[in-house]
Amino acid sequence: SLTVLQALEDGLRRADADPSVKAVMICGENGKFSAGADIRGFSSLKRCGIALGPIISLIERSEKPVVAAIEGIALGGGLEVALGCHYRIAHVKAWMGFPEVTIGLLPGAEGTQRLPRLIGVPAALDVITTGRHIPATEALKLGLVDEVVEENTVEAAICLANKV
To answer: What PROSITE patterns does the annotation carry (predicted)?
Structure first.
C-alpha cells in the first residue's frame, strides 16, 4: 500500500541520516513479512509517484546493514523487499516466492535481477517462472536466506544486525 511504501522510504531515509542508528531491521506485522502488493492498488501508486523498485534500491544502497526478519510469508513485492536487504533471517515456518507469475505478471521491482545474483540463474528461473512457494529450509539451502531460526525472528535479526 501507499502507506507502507511511504513508511519504508521515510524510515530508511531517517535511519541513514541518523548517526546513532547502526543498522536497520525490516519486519512485518502479525507473523507475516509481506504478501506483496494488492493488484487493485497499482494504479493509485502510479498516480502518487511512489514505486517499490526505487525504495528497494534505497534499501540496497544503505551504508548501514539492513536485515529482513521474515516470518510467515514473503511473497511477490515482499520477497523483493527482502532481496534488497543485505541480510535475511527467516523463521523455520516461513515461505517465499513470486506467485504473481501465475496470473501472468513478472516481479516488477528488480526481483528478476536480484534473485539470480543471489542464488544463481537455474534456481532463480525455477522460482521466478513457477510461482511456487519456497519453504525457509529450502531457501537456506539455495542461499536465499542467511539463517533460519525457530525462535523469535525479530530478536534473531536484531542480534545479527548487532554482530555486523
So the answer is: ENOYL_COA_HYDRATASE (PS00166)
